[in-house]
Amino acid sequence: MYKGQRLFNDILAGQISWLLPFCVIALAFAAFMRVAHMRRGFMRLRLVSAPDDGPSGAAWLVWGGWLAVHYVVFSFSSGTFHPYYTTAMAPAVAALCGMGAVVMWQAYRRSRVWAWVLPLAVAVTGVWSFVVLRRTPDWAPWLAWVVLGATLVAVVVLVVARVRAQVTARIAALALAATVVAGLAGPAAYAVTPLQSQVNGTNPTAGPSSGGMGGFGRPGGMPGGGQFPGGGPGQPGTGNRQNAEPGTADSGVTGRGGRSGFMGRGGPGGGVSDAMTKYLVANQGKATWLVAVNSAQQASGLILSTGKPVIAMGGFTGSDPAMTVERLQSLVSSGQLRYVMAGSEGGGPGRGNTEVTTWVQANCTAVDGQDGLYDCAT
Predict the structure, then answer these.
(1) DSSP per residue over 141-173, as a string?
(2) What ranges does the record give for the region Disordered, renumbered to this chain (predicted)?
């Protein structure tokens, strides 16, 4: 898929794109009307409007600029990209939808020429919601058709009322209700899905899986098949419907298969089994730190499950060589640290800090029955 369409692909569409068509139409309509009025001399250039004039020019500039900047950055950036980054666009989407609804409703009631902008915006938004929902036909299959039906009702009511020039309170209420269902039923349904299943704390997303390895909210998979950085049992995703490779910028998510992450294999701690967790707690003794592990993703799970302090030697993902041999020796000799994970279970400290790994394996004793765990106090 073309990079400019990344926010509409199978992975990201359900996270942020639902109301983007409405926002674009609202922005284009507001900009056109202001330029047209100023050119005809009907409106002076100003940044603050009277209360009954609708949103000010400054408001359109701020929220429109916010949305445009994020759209460009998220669509064309390369490198690590997580779907939850798109939540930064939510305030702009909400503001533009609110302002756009006011402006288009005013035009609908007051102008014969521009009355059709509101039905058009409702139709495009509802149809796009239908498309997104149909990408996961096995998940709430009825919802897509409810949205499509509500869209049809809203558009027909708006058009008929405008043609007859009779926009009564009852008609307005019916059109409003149908429009709300058409525009918000899809994103609302996606928004509540995290309450129904376990969510990956590192890469939270909304909605069901749209293909690929791993279901929504489960370690090891992203909607559309992308791989969670730091998640999954070392198995890459299977791609998405846009034929983008998992872990590439075009796929909408960067993956790093093969690294144990938060809530990875073996239970709490990401790559740390329940048996190892119990062993560490039982044998910590007077040491300050429960254990030193590869990454903050591993450490976070252990901290949450035990309430004990844990050292993350390699930073967030384990790729930062923050720990040094001298620092590790100091922690061990002072009795602050006893156990270090440096084997197949926990990965090498620092992921690339071979000096630390070599020192641990040469000077510490591998714990029997606890794969990858070393006792540096013996």
Answers:
(1) HHHHHHHHHHHHHHHHHHHHHHHTT---HHHHH
(2) 197-269
